[in-house]
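I have been asked to look over a protein record a colleague put together. Alongside the sequence sits a line of tokens, each denoting a local backbone shape. Please read both lines and tell me whether the tokens look consistent with the sequence. Take the sequence as given and treat only the tokens as open to question. I have pasted the whole thing underneath without changing anything:
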Amino acid sequence: MSADITKVAIVTGASRGIGSAIAKRLASDGFAVIVNYAGRSAEAEMLVKQIEEAGGKAIPVQADVSDARAVERMFDAAESAYGRIDLLVNNAGIMKLAALAESDDTLFDSQIAINLKGSFNTLREAAKRLRNGGRIINLSSSVVGLYQPSYAVYAATKAGVEAMTHVLAKELRGRNITVNAVAPGPTATALFLDGKPQQVIEHLTKLAPLERLGQPEDIANTVAFLAGPDGAWINGQVLRANGGII
């Protein structure tokens, strides 16, 4: 990118895990990063400090993505701080697992609110406010395709995100904005590991032909590809970054 222009990225759910790795990678690639968080302010501020100490630019911005007004304020904060928005990475999400017959309304409603409505809120705002030539990258999941028991609601939210990805890519015709999704497989983050017995983790580790769990940096590298010049011809696609698990 030009030395006199700093591109600006919003990364939702960036305080830890995959989101944190994405924010660090984009900052190292020259983006000024909006480190979005919902409730983990200390972790978000620590990440911003790490980015700045490495020579990058970042600010923390609190916003619950399920709240449309909060999302508007987050975009306002990005424009106020840096004057432009070039990239949205929709990473914020939660995962609650249960058999469909045992899934209560809270499990359903919370995942719909954050994973699906949250992505809708940020996509709607980005469609209005991203600069021409920008990029939108959604985080889906390879559970869309694996369809394991207990993942019904979570997979449904991510299938919805993929549908919005395909449609928005077509709706932004004429603005040179690409819209894609990255669908990680099992990745070694707290979101994935929490509550899983060791034998389940070991089983999932061996499923992919590469016989390991993904690392947050694997996903960050994939996002960086789509956000950078080499990804300019990829549009309306779902890229499964999963070591070949499906």
About this structure: The domain at 8-186+215-241 is CATH 3.40.50.720 (Rossmann fold). Residues 105-129 form the longest helix (25 residues).
